[in-house]
Amino acid sequence: MFQIFFRNGTNLLLSEYITERMASMPQFDVLIIGSGLAGLSLALKLASQRKVAVITKKSLLEGASVLAQGGIAAVLSKEDSLNEHIQDTLTAGDGLCDPTTASYVIEHARPAIDWLIAQGVPFSRDASTDSGYHLTREGGHSHRRIIHAADATGHAVQETLASKVIAHPNITLLEQHIAIDLITGKKLGHRHNQCYGAYALNCLTGEVITIAAHDTILATGGAGKVYLYTTNPDTATGDGIAMGWRAGCRVSNMEFIQFHPTCLYHPHAKSFLISEAVRGEGGILKLPDGTRFMPAHDDRAELAPRDIVARAIDFEMKKRGLDCVYLDISHQPLHFLQEHFPTIYSRCLSLGIDMARQPIPVVPAAHYICGGIVTDLHGRTDVPNLYAVGETACTGLHGANRLASNSLLECMVFSNAAAHSILATPPGPSIQLPQWDESLVTDADEDIIISHNWAELRQFMWDYVGIVRTTKRLERAQHRIRLLHEEIYEYYANFHVSSDLLELRNLVLTADLIVQSALSRHESRGLHYSKDYPGTLPMAVPTVFIPNA
Ligand code: FAD
Ligand code: SIN
């Protein structure tokens, strides 16, 4: 006899529950959770042969993808080679990239770009190059190989794909719907832990719907909101990692958080990135007195990989008690800046900073999570019929540090791989699923607990689990996370869910996985730097956690 476990700890026999609560539910061949580049490109690749639902917790164009500036890395020039792109990726990943994954992704980059061009993405052109496109350069790349649409690549890509998704008759789009949890065999008491769909909260009505699907995809993006200062959008709350973990998926390499070296420092700028392409086109990092400092930290100076540049800035700021450092590209002519960086130029100007005449104040901020749900070369997770694609996945491409502009590429290559895998199996009939039960919970009395805990979590993660770590600080963070976890669990078990509560629950779990992973790594490697373990061990071993292990 199977039992249903309610959020507040009571339970019912499954047979009683099903007769009582079963009602009509939306059914699809494929449910995609998230409308970033991973989600939208996958939806378009499936829609000619499958009935697809895309749910997204805010509006269609909210997420990290639309904010991407620099571009997409791919070997498009005759002077470049696949081997060099692979080697640059492995070097940045500091021993922890999976070489098979790196080769797979980089070899599939050209068709991925060709597909985007065929969809109509207006990449910046340059008649003087052999590809016909302007290729920019970023830290850690040995060649110019970043195809881009000026400095708003993500916007150009997402607008192009979104217009096709909206028009497609086989794609149902549900905006303002936040996935709460996956529905799995384990949760239904089955012997096999297959994924059958998800529960989602309609953020406008407060209703929870049950969505059944033959295949479900986590395409929920990253987790930058776990930190106080981040380049990430509000949507980046680690939901996919947390849902996947609760469903029974392994997570890997969660300690490797990439801090982007140059986020605009201004009281009125909410998380605005100054693209690495600014350094690629000659931008120089300076102290307030105008001294250049990067050559003293690394021979590659401003074009060293991000972990090195971010740590150098952090070092200089802490040593000198600075609020920020400066990025100076004022030696380039105005027309060059307006052509290559129109978004950055106008945003800075709107805040009174003329980058053609003065340096831009910048600070590092949390930017990307290299770890996530473990997937194979098809985007499959440990749970049958559940895939993870994009930033929420850990494919092995990035290892201990992601090479700039390899992330959008990974979204494209793995959405294609997942589409092939899904299309290879005909979708069977969906099973009837129990509806969400709210009968034993009440309205929350005090939302202050949620807002207070959000703020507290983000502050101590920034202070204790930042660019430079110590065991003592990590243990402090772990202690606080345990307290927050208890409070939030109690709140979740007893009150109606809200999007803030769901996100906080996921953020705390993600933070816990980050801290546990960081504590378990007794060395410094890639993005993880510990003052207590400054050396790098001879053998590179990924951190892998198994749920309930
Ligand atoms: P996202 O684009 O973040 O999309 C995730 C989607 O999931 C969103 O629609 C979100 O609302 C939705 N979602 C999340 N949780 C839920 C839930 N519970 N229920 C329903 N929906 C949910 N990488 C590069 O390669 N090149 C660049 O130039 C570049 N520039 C960047 C600039 C900035 C400012 C930032 C923040 C990142 C940049 N990156 C860049 C990284 C890259 O943009 C991201 O890694 C990539 O876009 C992730 O795509 P995604 O589809 O996985 O996630
Ligand atoms: C940037 O434009 O600097 C961001 C590129 C990236 O994160 O890959």
Automatic annotation (TrEMBL):
Catalytic activity as recorded in UniProt: L-aspartate + O2 = iminosuccinate + H2O2
Gene3D superfamilies from the UniProt entry: FAD/NAD(P)-binding domain, Fumarate reductase/succinate dehydrogenase flavoprotein-like, C-terminal domain, Succinate dehydrogenase/fumarate reductase flavoprotein, catalytic domain
Keyword Kinase recorded: no
Domain called Fumarate reductase/succinate dehydrogenase flavoprotein-like C-terminal: residue spans: 455-534
Domain FAD-dependent oxidoreductase 2 FAD-binding intervals: 29-408
Compartmental location: Cytoplasm
A GO molecular-function descriptor: L-aspartate oxidase activity
Chief place where the protein resides: cytoplasm
Name used for this protein in its record: L-aspartate oxidase
